Amino acid sequence: EIVLTQSPGTLSLSPGERATLSCRASQSVSSSYLAWYQQKPGQAPRLLIYGASSRATGIPDRFSGSGSGTDFTLTISRLEPEDFAVYYCQQYGSFFGQGTRLEIK
Amino acid sequence: QVQLQESGPGLVKPSQTLSLTCTVSGGSISSGSYYWSWIRQPAGKGLEWIGRIYTSGSTNYNPSLKSRVTISVDTSKNQFSLKLSSVTAADTAVYYCARVWMVRGAVGWFDPWGQGTLVTVSS
Description:
Radius of gyration of chain B: 14 Å
Order of helices and strands of chain B: EEEEEEEEEEE
Shape of chain B: globular
Largest interface: A-B, 23 and 26 residues
Largest sheet of chain B: 7 strands, mixed
Radius of gyration of chain A: 13 Å
Helix content of chain A: under 10%
Mean pLDDT of chain B: 96
Oligomer: heterodimer
Number of strands of chain A: 9
Number of helices of chain A: 0
Low-confidence stretches of chain A: none
Structural class of chain B: mainly beta
Distance between the termini of chain A: 36 Å
Largest sheet of chain A: 6 strands, mixed
Strand content of chain B: over 45%
Number of strands of chain B: 11
Distance between the termini of chain B: 39 Å
């Protein structure tokens, strides 16, 4: 079982700033089989990124994913007010990281 | 587009079996190469994958829950279901169903998700 560790646990930034969220796997994730989700309070998670770097349909281009092997990154280039939420990485088909809370500073 | 909706009792007594159904609309559960999955989230905590099923009936479960979980599919009703036996307060959570995309023969990402349903385990 691959364990995904996300950091930081909480990230405090202001609108307009750049956010960098990390997801580290305990062993190599084959073929970049990694996805990212955004979850707002009271809502189901929403797919943002699949294949480590491909944006899902309708996701703004300020969201980007990168990485391979054991280290993956979700970057939000310029934070909008609606981007403050919890973000999860996920190894394809199963386990999730523990989440990073992105809060307004 | 495909939409998913969870349904079932919101309150289950300890030691009993939790039963939920996910109804798929906007497309056939049998069309395309998809798995169908259950995920849960205790209040204020992260996401826990429970298991998944293919329309052939093939299943995979989270090892930590495997002894208590059964996922089944009813293609005639365009539904799949979750049963979790011997529940305790630790099973109190929002339960989500989701479609699982396949990529190069491997299971992939979850999209879309149902809105989720809260199940409370309490006497």
